[in-house]
Write a structure and sequence with these properties.
With 337 residues, this protein is α/β, with parallel strands linked by helices. The protein contains 10 helices and 7 strands. It is globular.
Length: 337
């Protein structure tokens, strides 16, 4: 399946307000930093919003999101509506910049076009190629936004747009739809997909360590998938381990998930079991009772694999809300979104 541009408003109808953009090379990777010239002179705190693009595209498509977020925040500051809890001085303020860069094997870093494609486009190593990129953002970046919020203590807020926290379930679904031999040639279908050449043992180990469902849910990540029998994880993935990992990795953090109800590439059905488990885990009878996580999960009816203007506004509102939070309520020593 060819991947259409899920942020089409980047080309037409998106925010057009000018904002400063500076290209900076960091470790040999070209990055674009937005909003440096617009930072208020009184800023005592600066937050960085990391914007990572979808698969097969480049950082260029993320610029309208940077413009929208920074413009809306600076307007709030200029109108005196922003709150700064980081300083007792009434003259201080909170600044916002945004950074984008090309993901591995994309844009200016592209080496192999085929490696960015899916199984049905001729890429025989689609599953390993997808997981090896760790980012924040939309689609491919959305998958990795989950990994970043879990494994980077400095990131306090994540916006996951048309991404999935359950890599096993998502790739199993794609293998089924792509009619991979590893799925169709067993009885029942898919019985040996996990551990096959399409989802090898080396990839399983990465999922155990970094995938949200694989790491936080543990055994459950490899159960209840069509055709799968039992679990591939050790018995230490108990409720106590789950609670400890949830407390260590998500306490005080904020996650907004925006999904398309008609998304066929990353269908919400692949995310829903883990999302339901995570919500239940914070309930009165859950493994992480009354867990301190601000988790918001929205599915937009009739929306496919795209980020609509409405979704953009919801995302920006969430960012601005995070910037207005007292620092004591935001996880991490530094402010990174």
């Amino acid at each position: 399946m060819a991947v259409a541009n899920p942020v089409a408003f980047s080309d037409d109808g998106g925010p057009k307000s000018p904002i400063s953009k500076k290209e900076i090379s960091i470790g040999g990777i070209l990055t674009n930093v937005f909003g440096l010239d617009e930072l208020p002179a009184s800023a005592t705190t600066i937050s960085c919003l990391w914007l990572l693009h979808p698969r097969t595209l480049s950082q260029a498509c993320m610029e309208p999101i940077a413009v929208k977020a920074i413009t809306d925040w600076n307007k709030r500051v200029s109108e005196g509506k922003a709150q700064d809890f980081s300083s007792s001085s009434s003259s201080s303020s909170h600044g916002l910049i945004a950074v984008s860069f090309d993901q591995r094997n994309h844009g200016s870093r592209k080496v192999s076009l085929l490696a960015n494609e899916a199984w049905d486009r001729g890429n025989e190593t689609h599953a390993p190629d997808m997981l090896s990129c760790i980012t924040l953002g939309i689609s491919l970046g959305g998958h990795a936004a989950w990994q970043s919020i879990i494994h980077d203590a400095n990131i306090s807020t994540a916006i996951v747009v048309i991404g999935c926290p359950d890599y096993v379930r998502m790739m199993s679904d794609r293998a089924r739809l792509s009619k991979r031999k590893s799925w169709t040639e067993t009885d029942p279908p898919g019985k040996d997909f996990i551990g096959s050449v399409d989802f090898p043992e080396s990839l399983i180990e990465v999922v155990r360590k970094y995938d949200p469902a694989g790491y936080l849910h543990g055994q459950g990540a490899f159960q209840s998938i069509e055709g799968q029998q039992g679990s591939l994880l050790s018995e230490d993935a108990t409720a106590a381990i789950q609670a400890t990992r949830l407390e260590e990795r998500l306490k005080g953090k904020r996650i907004l998930c925006l999904s398309g109800g008609a998304d066929k590439l990353v269908p919400y059905r692949c995310s829903e079991p883990f999302m339901t488990w995570l919500k239940d885990a914070m309930g009165p009878n859950g493994v992480w009772r009354n867990g301190n996580l601000d988790l918001r999960d929205r599915v937009f009816d009739g929306v496919g694999h795209e980020m609509t203007g409405e979704m953009l506004q919801v995302a920006v509102d969430f960012i601005l809300e995070a910037l207005d939070l007292p620092s004591a309520k935001v996880a991490g020593a530094s402010s990174r979104l």
